[in-house]
Amino acid sequence: MVNRRQFISSAAMGVASLSSGPALFAAEYDLIIKGGRVIDPSLHVNAVLDIGISGGRIASIAQNIDTDAAEIVDATDKLVIPGLLDVHAHYARDAEGPRICLSDGVTGWVDAGSEGADQIDDMVAIARSAPQPARVLLNIGREGILPDGDTHDLALANVDAAKAAIARNRDYVIGVKARLTEGVAVDDVEVLRRAQEVATFFNLPLMIHMGQTASPFSVLVDQLKPGDIVTHMLAPPPNAIIDDSGAIFPAVLAARRRGVWFDVANGRTGHLLWDTFDEIMEAGFWPDTISTDGNTTSRNAASVIDFPNVMSKFLNFGMTLDQVVARATVNASRIFPVFRDRGTLNVGAPADIAVLELRDGRFEFIDNYENLRVGTRRLFPYETVLAGRRAPRV
């Protein structure tokens, strides 16, 4: 019987054997991250190791890499994980967004439908100029996120306009977004049908914003194809993913079996209630991915703050550290092709790395309804490495 210590030791030996060559000299490294606890679910590694970086890529993971003539990041008592991938954010609403989230450890992101066909070019321009890999989802509502609702007028869900917008930005638009909350969409079933028509035409995934819909969620989720994404999966009733007894609806279970992804998207309003959180987690229907639904003002929002804070909610109330890291890295890398070579610290992968600090203490966590819950551990951003270079702190 192999105990946990033996498993971690053997995992460390295994990943060390992946180093590019038997004995890389220190001069061959541009940067070494030294002495941190490396957690990489893609490699099944959780051990104190060094990471050597050369030419913007991971060159070696091993114990006690020689540090002569290399820039050093001292990660003693810190966690070293693959760069965070935020698959539901709104960083393209502001030119400062990409830089701010990079400082928090986010080395790849997707803007989840801030704009529709009429303003998509502005959003794509911000994504193109971002320091980290960034892509966007097109809002099926042609005017994007509106105070009165993205598709409060069904005419705004214009299929032809959406197709034309994607066609001229095909390299950066990687999916379609439909917000289906009652009041946001005047006819959620028809809006979803039109959004799926556009997504299917380009063989792209559709992300749906659920919770408080007019139609039962089972009716909506049945329209999703493999590779589509349900976001705000922890949203409370009416029309949550659970029934009145806390059981997951059969249609939701069937959707996961056929390859539909379920994402958190913490956000600020209507998306996370602690009571619903507990019921869904206790039912064993854990999220595939954790995301923020954040933007440039999120640091001032107690329910979000930053990606590590959102991750900490799951660390305190349901998941192990390795499970949380997986949902912010390797799991997220599987949803969109742009991230397929990321979410890992494997040798040869882009050297996108988040160094986090895990503190013990008394920490307050807020849901979207101003309910407070106290936890004993919280993750904080410490250092970000993007393509082998240290990112400035903001």
3D architecture notes:
The protein is an alpha/beta fold. The protein folds into 2 domains: about 5-80 and about 385-390, Urease, subunit C, domain 1 (Roll), CATH 2.30.40.10; about 85-340, Metal-dependent hydrolases (TIM Barrel, Alpha-Beta Barrel), CATH 3.20.20.140. Helix content is about 25%, strand content about 25%. It is built from 11 helices and 15 strands. Strands 1, 2, 3, 4, 5, 13, 14 and 15 form an 8-stranded mixed β-sheet that branches. A 7-stranded parallel β-sheet has the order 6-7-8-9-10-11-12. Helix 4 runs parallel beside helix 5 and helix 9 packs antiparallel against helix 10. The protein is globular, with a radius of gyration of 21 Å. Residues about 1-25 have low confidence and may be disordered.
SSE topology sketch:
Blueprint: H1 4-16, E1 31-40, E2 45-54, E3 57-62, E4 71-74, E5 79-82, E6 84-89, H2 97-103, E7 106-112, H3 120-129, E8 134-139, H4 159-167, E9 173-179, H5 188-201, E10 206-209, H6 217-221, E11 229-231, H7 250-257, E12 261-262, H8 274-282, H9 307-316, H10 321-328, H11 330-333, E13 353-366, E14 372-386, E15 389-390
Parallel strand pairs: 1-4, 1-5, 6-7, 7-8, 8-9, 9-10, 10-11, 11-12
Antiparallel strand pairs: 1-2, 2-3, 5-13, 13-14, 14-15
Helix pairs in contact: 4-5, 9-10
